[in-house]
Amino acid sequence: MKPFDFKVLGFLFSGISAGIKKDGKRDFGLIYSEIPAQVAGLFTTNTVKAAPVQLGRERIRGGLCQAIIVNSGNANACTGSQGMKDAKRVSSWVAKRLRIDERLVFPSSTGVIGSRLPMKKMEEGIPQLVDQLSPGGWMNTVEAMMTTDTFPKIEVATCRLKEKSVTLCGMIKGSGMIHPNLATMLSFLVTDACIEAPLLQQMLERVAEESYHRITIDGETSTNDTVLLLANGMSGHPPLSRMNRDGKVFRTLLLKVCKTLAESLVRDGEGATKYIEILIRGACNKEDAQRAAYAVARSPLVKTAFFGEDANWGRILCALGHSGARIHPDRIDVYFDQARIVKKGMGAGPRWEEKASEVIKKKSFQVIIDLHQGKGQFSVLTTDLSMDYVKINASYRS
Amino acid sequence: MKPFDFKVLGFLFSGISAGIKKDGKRDFGLIYSEIPAQVAGLFTTNTVKAAPVQLGRERIRGGLCQAIIVNSGNANACTGSQGMKDAKRVSSWVAKRLRIDERLVFPSSTGVIGSRLPMKKMEEGIPQLVDQLSPGGWMNTVEAMMTTDTFPKIEVATCRLKEKSVTLCGMIKGSGMIHPNLATMLSFLVTDACIEAPLLQQMLERVAEESYHRITIDGETSTNDTVLLLANGMSGHPPLSRMNRDGKVFRTLLLKVCKTLAESLVRDGEGATKYIEILIRGACNKEDAQRAAYAVARSPLVKTAFFGEDANWGRILCALGHSGARIHPDRIDVYFDQARIVKKGMGAGPRWEEKASEVIKKKSFQVIIDLHQGKGQFSVLTTDLSMDYVKINASYRS
């Protein structure tokens, strides 16, 4: 992330400390569009869905959103019908203060599961939250979303659509969900482009495949994962309603921002000291490549070896062997960046082992695995598994 | 494990230090039966199979085994055709020294993947290994199998078959494979019962379902996992060739020994400070129960919470939600031993939370999850995920 100053036309941001988190840091944020925006969204596939996710899934059917209200410190998950009532109430308080329809307010929560939202604190915080809204207040909003994140994650990019300048701003929180999993990812994207909701949804789904879904294990999602994309059209270009050349320009912009956000999330992996791209080449097909990539990327033994800077390629072959992907062990090549440490399923010798040992000392590197089976390819980003990961997650609620 | 003295008629054991491990501990072991024994075996399902596993799978077709040769410190995996030649050579040396057919010798290896066996050291060790064979030498054999194990794991039990006393002795090594996975499990069982190989195999498979397979994730196996069961018939009862009352008596004995061995392996989980039984009740069927049990048992976030003694039940519900098992979140009850911390998908309140917090401080406890969907049930043993786990696995090869 770089220092920058920007505006997304018509969008205002704020973030305050409402006392939801114990440490007194910002924990309550608001994103507001001066006019209702077209909205697209992705929600967790976990069967256990937090109340705000259930509400968001309902409200997104309307195709419009004017405000996102977000809190950290409490996930409002596993809170039953009371949790749903609470989520609705918070959104109605915000709507009232903003003088908008409450169905245009999307609530979002992250934090500890199983406790009721501190309703009084939230009610008391809303006037301040609304009063502090400003076009440059995005850093406060990002801070209010953070849980175990060690740095705020935000990205901005611009493009031209029909001779108008368009800005897209994305923010993300999350740090533990990468592999291992389950911590919440929230990502909010706002733009002054003019794109109709169905097209926006189509773009978001396509882009997520290449960004957010490359850093998470399918199905191993938290109760609260949410991505929302708002487009209020205030840049003034004629509306886009189907995929054409302009649509592709915007989708490219969206992909760039989402990829950067996803990567920054990996870089902030809980306790991570390294970030590593696992690239599978030469699989029978893409599905096999994906299976193989995930098996390596989530193996605790591979990840602890990365942490220990031990180029223990045996664990990589072992993970491939139980991945379910079709492999012939004696065809597999493994590279650490350019160093081919495994040739045809066997160690390539001390010279290469030495080179790989240099690579693994770096903070960031690639592990390229060529299965020599076919043309399937897939890459996934992951981190090492450090002692700090255990420390952070053992003491999360205390 | 308790101190004990026993003999299995006709079986001799030894274990020495041949210099395969760097630390000078025992690393080369031998189990020998005075007459060829009927043999049953289970081998890793990993596509990447170590040379000794490939050889064992070939030789077991003969139905007979007279010697098991085992080394730690080197897995002889990912060593190509050279590894196969090496495994065969070691077994032929042993066979020669014992004056038996080399096809009756089953080699077994555990340790680092991708290095050739130190053939010279092994050749030089064999005379001593054979000379030291004795009926009471089993502790030396067990020690020679150990890698990251912190204590030797052995179990003995007896029963009567057709008025003859029969003894069964089992040993196991392994400590990291439980969840997370991939470390090697080796288990050797020897008995003086007289049971024909096909029946022996059938018994072993059935018993493994209820013991070894309850502590490992299906498919996430190492390159070397091996279970061998030898029956030399020297107790002198008439042979058993099909399942009858006597067969059931022996199978019960086998189950008891295998369960105890599997449990001791969990108790020695790498860096584990707690061992926990995850019991799923009320699932739609057994498969769903199994899915749910494994999802909870292998969730790093659940396991780090156990380590931190944090009764963070939200993470348990979250793991259930992405397990693939059919659930209704608002029906789920969760107990920590007797303390029902979750009632109908929600926290049961501070009183129960307090009780659960007491339970989680224990070294061993049950987590019972009732899905209230049907009658499916499954239980699995697991450990917490501690900082020591990371430490052990980050520095394994150094």
Features:
Ubiquitin-like (UB roll); homodimer; 6-stranded mixed β-sheet; 27% strand; L-amino peptidase D-ALA esterase/amidase; alpha+beta; 8-stranded mixed β-sheet; 2 domains; globular; 398 residues
Could you characterize the architecture of this molecule?
- Two copies of one chain form a homodimer.
- With 398 residues, the first copy, chain A, is α+β, with helices and mostly antiparallel strands.
- Chain A has two domains: 11-267, L-amino peptidase D-ALA esterase/amidase (4-Layer Sandwich); 275-394, Ubiquitin-like (UB roll).
- The first copy, chain A, is 34% helix and 27% strand.
- Chain A has helices at residues 51-59, 80-98, 119-131, 138-145, 197-210, 245-267, 286-298, 300-307, 313-321, 350-359, 387-394; strands at 11-16, 28-43, 64-74, 105-112, 153-161, 164-173, 186-191, 226-231, 275-283, 333-336, 339-343, 346-347, 364-370, 376-383.
- In chain A, strands 1, 2, 3, 4, 5, 6, 7 and 8 form an eight-stranded mixed beta sheet that branches.
- In chain A, helix 5 (197-210) crosses helix 6 (245-267) and helix 7 packs across helix 9.
- At the A-B interface, helix 8, helix 9, strand 12 and helix 11 of A face helix 8, helix 9, strand 12 and helix 11 of B.
